[in-house]
Amino acid sequence: MVIQNADRRMQVYGALLLLPAAVLLGTFAYLPTVATLVNSFFLPGFRGAPPAFVGLENYAMLVEDATFWKVARNNLLYALGTIPTSIALALGMALFVNARLPGRGLVRMAYFTPTILPMIAAANVWMFFYAPQIGLFNKLLGALGLSGVNWLGDPGVALTSVIVMTVWKEAGFFMIFYLAALQSIPPELKEASDLEGTSRWSFFWRVTFPLLMPTTLFVLINALINAVRVVDHLFILTKGGPNNATNLLLYYVYENAFSFFDRTYAATITVVILLVLAVVATLKFTVLDRRTHYQ
Amino acid sequence: MYYPVAVGGALTDVIDGLVAEFENEHPDITVNAIYAGNYDDTRVRAMSAIEAGEAPQLSVLFSIDLFDLLEQDAIVAFDEVIESDEEREWLDSFYPGLMENGQIDGQTYGIPFQRSTIVLYWNKDAFEAAGLDPETPPENWEEMAEMAAAVREASGGEQWGVMVPSTGYPYWMFQAFAFQNGHRLMNEEGTEVYFDDPAAIEALEYWVSLAEEHEAMPDGTIEWGTLRQNFLEESTAMMWHSTGNLTAVRNEASFDFGVAMLPMNTQRGSPTGGGNFYLFKDTTEEEQRAAMTFIRWMTDPERAAAWSIETGYMGVSPASYETEALRNYVEEFPPAAVARDQLEHATAELATYQGGRVRRALDNAVQAALTGQMTPEEALKQAQAEADAALRRYARSR
């Protein structure tokens, strides 16, 4: 009897501890998700009229929507372009500024600066870097005697231009995590391997890199989230143009919801994005997690 | 009140100054003026505020948002709020051309504020250097192409002849080309568009030919936001842009420049553009009256004149051009009257139900043609199909 009472008390205690997180998650994650799913089965109402139930019509529209497929493809390219590059660059920069070099603090700060700039401000600066006649990049190319490129106005290079800016912006942020992880690696390992006469190369691949795996996983997830989430710079740089060459999924959702006032179609696209992300998350938990070595 | 700035420059300071002055004169009314980005961003801010149950009493939004705002049931007609004959007179005091985008079914929903037409800015020094008469801007399409090519050649490829922006508001520029070719892109009810008409295709072909054939305009799209800088740094001899840039160009240009009406083909023409005042629903009668007081104060001829001088946007009423301030200004700086004079040849800006989607379809078509992804005909056919689909969806939801 006494034991049962204590047991129940612990249960209530546990539930109470969970409550704040549950309320927050429920309000800001689960409820909107369900509402989005429900919305995707309706057509927007006209002049305050209630929305009309149309079943899967919005999904049928999505399947036929060439823009959606183009945007999805863009987003895939964008993810492939930004994620590996910014992670590799971040690791490289972290290894560099972790070594003893003069002015280390300054270099670290320089690498990290893009991260603390607001995206909108950074994008505004880059817009002038990219400007065809008056921009920095084309002036540099001009000095080398090369004719310039219309960085944001040529559908062939516009998405790459956006990717380059994203990598510039993100690498410094990921570097910080790698730097912290590098500094938490016990120095004895390095000393021991020096005694054994291990080459720097194999020390990095056999010791440092595996120990960095949890960080890599963390950074990877973050980069992935960002690849789907970050859209601010599109507002400034390209508005998704020219001809949707740089349009990405979330920007397309925004356009539908706020420029086209079509909330229900925006909801439909969101549901599809959520489904894809759910698949990715499952892969992460089942495959990647098992291969990661935690300290 | 939310308001947009689409042309850059220190317009927020001007607005803040005006609001402070108004509050001084009307201590019982508080105006909270929030700069909210470009036209699209501002609409989003206003609409989200409504959604959150904190509707603004008034806002400056895109003049062509009318159909969408009606669809969202967000605004009230000024006719419902005005009380006296005097106010009715005020409602009739604006240029009819500027009212076109703000009226439907005999009701007025939008009061012109930061209104514009597209004008041609040209660099007189560059014209002179190319052996052209610096005082004569191109009259028609042919001349513009020739003059632009002449500048390009004379500068040894250092300077472009003409730039027409093709990001931001490509449909707007295209509408000018189409109208100059005698073609209107939509019906008045906002339910049909005519993008793939031969006259429209011809207009887009001409635009594309400026780069392809005459080599007088750069390839690819031209950025709306940096174009003024391009002009100021003399990397182009001519630009098409909103008259709202006029004062900024005047203040910063280190060369002699002129402003002209856009060149014509079968007729002159430019769509009007810019932002209107709207009154929102879900506000008390008292708030609506206060909002009216503010809007009337802001559009008063003297104020409209001052606003026009400080920005380059048009004086919105004939009376504003009769004020001493604007009369003197126009005398001393004639380009300030070009947008007004062009009003005679102006057409309403592209506005339909499902406006965002329809405009976006046209934007994409223009960009696809300019970047060589599609021929003008293919691109406009596709835009027509997309716009038709959007309008059908609208018809269903109605």
Overall geometric form of chain B: globular
Percentage of residues in helical conformation of chain A:
over 70%
Give the N-to-C terminal Cα separation of chain A: 42 Å
Share of residues in strands of chain A: under 5%
Mean pLDDT of chain A: 88
Q: Report the helical percentage of chain B.
A: 40-55%
Most extensive chain contact? A-B, 34 and 45 residues
User: Low-confidence segments of chain A, ≥5 residues, pLDDT <50?
Assistant: none
**Beta strands of chain B, count:** 12
Terminal residue distance of chain B: 30 Å
- Work out the number of β strands of chain A: 2
Proportion of residues in β-strands of chain B: 5-15%
Contiguous uncertain segments of 5+ residues of chain B: none
Radius of gyration of chain B: 21 Å
Feature tags:
heterodimer; A: 295 residues; 2 strands; 76% helix; B: 398 residues; alpha/beta; 8-stranded mixed β-sheet; 49% helix; transmembrane helix (chain A); membrane (chain A)
Q: Describe it for me?
A:
- The complex is a heterodimer of chains A (295) and B (398).
- By secondary structure, chain A is mainly alpha-helical.
- Chain A has helices at 2-39, 57-64, 66-98, 104-116, 119-130, 136-143, 158-183, 187-196, 200-211, 213-229, 232-237, 249-259, 263-291, and strands at residues 42-43, 52-53.
- Chain A has a two-stranded antiparallel sheet.
- In chain A, helix 1 (2-39) crosses helix 13 (263-291).
- Chain B is an alpha/beta fold.
- Chain B is built from 19 helices and twelve strands.
- Chain B has helices spanning 11-25, 39-51, 66-71, 78-81, 85-91, 96-99, 124-129, 141-154, 170-180, 198-212, 224-232, 246-252, 285-299, 301-311, 318-322, 324-332, 338-342, 355-370, 376-397; strands at 2-3, 34-35, 58-62, 75-76, 103-104, 107-108, 111-123, 160-163, 236-242, 257-260, 270-280, 346-347.
- In chain B, helix 1 links the parallel strand 1 and strand 2.
- Chain A binds chain B through residues 43-48, 52, 61, 127-128, 131-135, 150, 152-155, 235-236, 238-239, 241-244, 255, 258-262, and chain B through 40-41, 43-44, 47-48, 68, 70-73, 160, 166-168, 218-223, 225-226, 229-230, 233, 235-236, 354, 356-357, 360, 363-365, 367-368, 370-371, 373, 390, 393, 396-398.
- Chain A: Belongs to the binding-protein-dependent transport system permease family.
- Chain A: It comes from Billgrantia sulfidoxydans.
